[in-house]
Fold:
Amino acid sequence: MINDVLEQLAEDYFRHLGYFTQHNVKYRPNKKGSAYSVHSDVDIVAVHPKKKGIDRVIVVSCKSWHGGLHITRELKRLKENYRRTRQTFRELAMPVWSRALKNKIRDITNQKRFVFYIICVSYDNRYKKMWEENKVFKKNLSGCKIKLLDFKTMIERIKEDAFSITPAHSELTRLLQFINHSGGEINYILANKKLKK
Structure:
Protein backbone atom coordinates (compact mmCIF):
# COMPACT_ATOMS: atom_id res chain seq x y z
CA MET A 1 0.00 0.00 0.00
CA ILE A 2 1.35 3.42 -0.95
CA ASN A 3 0.77 6.05 1.73
CA ASP A 4 1.75 9.15 -0.23
CA VAL A 5 -1.21 10.63 -2.13
CA LEU A 6 0.90 11.75 -5.08
CA GLU A 7 2.40 8.26 -5.40
CA GLN A 8 -1.09 6.70 -5.18
CA LEU A 9 -2.33 8.95 -7.94
CA ALA A 10 0.77 8.30 -10.08
CA GLU A 11 0.33 4.54 -9.72
CA ASP A 12 -3.37 4.79 -10.61
CA TYR A 13 -2.54 7.04 -13.56
CA PHE A 14 -0.18 4.52 -15.12
CA ARG A 15 -2.47 1.58 -14.32
CA HIS A 16 -5.24 3.54 -16.07
CA LEU A 17 -2.94 3.60 -19.11
CA GLY A 18 -2.49 -0.19 -18.99
CA TYR A 19 0.78 -0.50 -17.07
CA PHE A 20 1.60 -3.02 -14.37
CA THR A 21 3.36 -1.31 -11.47
CA GLN A 22 5.83 -1.99 -8.71
CA HIS A 23 6.67 0.63 -6.13
CA ASN A 24 9.70 1.55 -4.01
CA VAL A 25 12.27 -0.17 -6.20
CA LYS A 26 15.62 0.07 -4.42
CA TYR A 27 18.99 0.38 -6.14
CA ARG A 28 22.52 1.60 -5.48
CA PRO A 29 25.85 1.83 -7.27
CA ASN A 30 28.08 -1.22 -7.20
CA LYS A 31 30.88 0.71 -5.49
CA LYS A 32 32.53 0.70 -2.10
CA GLY A 33 32.32 3.65 0.24
CA SER A 34 29.91 5.20 2.69
CA ALA A 35 28.35 7.38 -0.03
CA TYR A 36 26.99 4.24 -1.68
CA SER A 37 26.14 2.11 1.37
CA VAL A 38 22.52 3.28 1.55
CA HIS A 39 20.07 2.37 -1.20
CA SER A 40 18.13 4.95 -3.12
CA ASP A 41 14.78 4.09 -4.61
CA VAL A 42 12.37 5.14 -7.29
CA ASP A 43 8.73 5.35 -6.32
CA ILE A 44 7.25 3.41 -9.22
CA VAL A 45 8.42 1.21 -12.07
CA ALA A 46 5.66 0.53 -14.61
CA VAL A 47 5.75 -1.94 -17.48
CA HIS A 48 3.21 -2.11 -20.29
CA PRO A 49 2.69 -5.67 -21.59
CA LYS A 50 1.76 -4.60 -25.12
CA LYS A 51 3.96 -1.59 -25.82
CA LYS A 52 7.30 -1.87 -27.54
CA GLY A 53 10.20 0.54 -27.42
CA ILE A 54 11.04 3.20 -24.89
CA ASP A 55 7.45 3.74 -23.68
CA ARG A 56 7.18 0.12 -22.53
CA VAL A 57 8.92 0.94 -19.23
CA ILE A 58 8.16 3.96 -17.05
CA VAL A 59 10.24 4.96 -14.02
CA VAL A 60 8.76 7.48 -11.59
CA SER A 61 10.17 9.70 -8.87
CA CYS A 62 7.49 11.68 -7.01
CA LYS A 63 8.24 15.02 -5.35
CA SER A 64 5.32 15.88 -3.06
CA TRP A 65 6.36 19.44 -2.29
CA HIS A 66 3.32 21.64 -1.71
CA GLY A 67 4.99 24.54 -3.48
CA GLY A 68 5.63 22.44 -6.56
CA LEU A 69 8.83 22.03 -8.55
CA HIS A 70 10.57 25.37 -9.13
CA ILE A 71 12.43 24.39 -12.26
CA THR A 72 14.70 27.41 -12.70
CA ARG A 73 15.73 27.42 -9.01
CA GLU A 74 16.50 23.69 -8.97
CA LEU A 75 18.45 23.84 -12.25
CA LYS A 76 20.47 26.77 -10.89
CA ARG A 77 21.23 24.84 -7.69
CA LEU A 78 22.30 21.80 -9.71
CA LYS A 79 24.60 23.94 -11.82
CA GLU A 80 26.12 25.40 -8.64
CA ASN A 81 26.62 21.84 -7.32
CA TYR A 82 24.27 22.40 -4.38
CA ARG A 83 24.59 19.11 -2.43
CA ARG A 84 20.99 18.74 -1.25
CA THR A 85 19.56 19.33 -4.72
CA ARG A 86 22.05 16.87 -6.26
CA GLN A 87 20.92 14.25 -3.73
CA THR A 88 17.24 14.96 -4.41
CA PHE A 89 17.71 14.46 -8.15
CA ARG A 90 20.61 11.98 -7.97
CA GLU A 91 19.23 9.78 -10.78
CA LEU A 92 19.46 12.75 -13.13
CA ALA A 93 22.39 14.72 -11.73
CA MET A 94 24.96 12.14 -10.64
CA PRO A 95 26.33 9.74 -13.30
CA VAL A 96 27.14 6.97 -10.81
CA TRP A 97 23.50 6.93 -9.63
CA SER A 98 22.18 7.24 -13.19
CA ARG A 99 24.15 4.12 -14.17
CA ALA A 100 22.95 2.28 -11.07
CA LEU A 101 19.33 3.10 -11.90
CA LYS A 102 19.73 2.02 -15.52
CA ASN A 103 21.32 -1.25 -14.40
CA LYS A 104 18.49 -1.93 -11.95
CA ILE A 105 15.79 -1.23 -14.54
CA ARG A 106 17.58 -3.48 -17.03
CA ASP A 107 17.79 -6.23 -14.38
CA ILE A 108 14.06 -6.15 -13.56
CA THR A 109 12.58 -5.34 -16.99
CA ASN A 110 15.22 -6.55 -19.44
CA GLN A 111 15.10 -3.13 -21.07
CA LYS A 112 17.86 -0.50 -21.17
CA ARG A 113 15.73 2.41 -22.30
CA PHE A 114 12.78 3.89 -20.41
CA VAL A 115 10.87 7.09 -19.73
CA PHE A 116 11.90 8.74 -16.46
CA TYR A 117 9.18 10.90 -14.91
CA ILE A 118 9.51 13.45 -12.19
CA ILE A 119 5.96 13.77 -10.87
CA CYS A 120 5.19 16.80 -8.76
CA VAL A 121 2.27 18.79 -7.43
CA SER A 122 2.83 21.56 -9.96
CA TYR A 123 5.45 23.36 -12.03
CA ASP A 124 5.63 26.39 -14.28
CA ASN A 125 4.90 25.03 -17.75
CA ARG A 126 7.02 27.79 -19.36
CA TYR A 127 10.16 25.99 -18.13
CA LYS A 128 9.10 22.40 -18.73
CA LYS A 129 11.29 22.01 -21.82
CA MET A 130 14.32 23.36 -19.90
CA TRP A 131 13.95 20.41 -17.52
CA GLU A 132 13.08 17.73 -20.05
CA GLU A 133 15.86 18.76 -22.46
CA ASN A 134 18.55 19.43 -19.84
CA LYS A 135 21.89 18.33 -21.32
CA VAL A 136 23.28 16.91 -18.07
CA PHE A 137 20.14 14.83 -17.43
CA LYS A 138 20.09 13.56 -21.02
CA LYS A 139 23.77 12.64 -20.87
CA ASN A 140 23.42 10.82 -17.54
CA LEU A 141 20.29 8.91 -18.61
CA SER A 142 21.38 8.52 -22.22
CA GLY A 143 18.88 6.71 -24.41
CA CYS A 144 16.02 7.53 -22.04
CA LYS A 145 13.32 10.21 -22.15
CA ILE A 146 12.89 12.63 -19.26
CA LYS A 147 9.41 13.94 -18.55
CA LEU A 148 7.55 16.11 -16.04
CA LEU A 149 3.99 15.34 -14.96
CA ASP A 150 1.82 17.24 -12.50
CA PHE A 151 -1.06 16.46 -10.15
CA LYS A 152 -3.66 18.31 -12.21
CA THR A 153 -2.89 16.39 -15.42
CA MET A 154 -3.18 13.08 -13.60
CA ILE A 155 -6.43 14.06 -11.81
CA GLU A 156 -7.99 15.13 -15.11
CA ARG A 157 -7.05 11.79 -16.71
CA ILE A 158 -8.05 9.63 -13.73
CA LYS A 159 -11.34 11.50 -13.52
CA GLU A 160 -12.46 9.44 -16.51
CA ASP A 161 -12.33 6.33 -14.27
CA ALA A 162 -14.82 7.93 -11.89
CA PHE A 163 -17.62 6.95 -14.27
CA SER A 164 -16.70 3.27 -14.07
CA ILE A 165 -18.49 0.88 -11.72
CA THR A 166 -15.34 -1.27 -11.40
CA PRO A 167 -13.63 -0.37 -8.08
CA ALA A 168 -10.59 1.81 -8.59
CA HIS A 169 -7.03 0.85 -7.59
CA SER A 170 -6.59 3.09 -4.53
CA GLU A 171 -8.53 4.92 -1.86
CA LEU A 172 -7.89 8.18 -3.69
CA THR A 173 -9.48 7.12 -6.96
CA ARG A 174 -12.23 5.25 -5.08
CA LEU A 175 -13.04 8.62 -3.47
CA LEU A 176 -13.36 10.18 -6.93
CA GLN A 177 -15.74 7.36 -7.89
CA PHE A 178 -17.86 7.91 -4.76
CA ILE A 179 -18.10 11.63 -5.47
CA ASN A 180 -19.21 10.95 -9.03
CA HIS A 181 -21.69 8.14 -8.20
CA SER A 182 -23.28 10.18 -5.39
CA GLY A 183 -24.15 12.96 -7.82
CA GLY A 184 -21.16 15.18 -7.10
CA GLU A 185 -18.88 16.80 -9.62
CA ILE A 186 -15.14 16.56 -9.95
CA ASN A 187 -13.69 19.89 -11.00
CA TYR A 188 -10.11 20.96 -10.69
CA ILE A 189 -9.61 24.62 -9.82
CA LEU A 190 -6.06 25.87 -9.68
CA ALA A 191 -5.73 28.34 -6.82
CA ASN A 192 -1.97 28.82 -6.92
CA LYS A 193 -1.57 31.47 -9.62
CA LYS A 194 2.25 31.45 -9.42
CA LEU A 195 2.58 27.98 -10.92
CA LYS A 196 -0.45 28.11 -13.16
CA LYS A 197 -0.06 26.23 -16.44
Observations:
- Strands lie at 20-27, 40-47, 57-63, 115-120, 145-150.
- The chain has nine helices and five strands.
- The chain has one domain: 5-151.
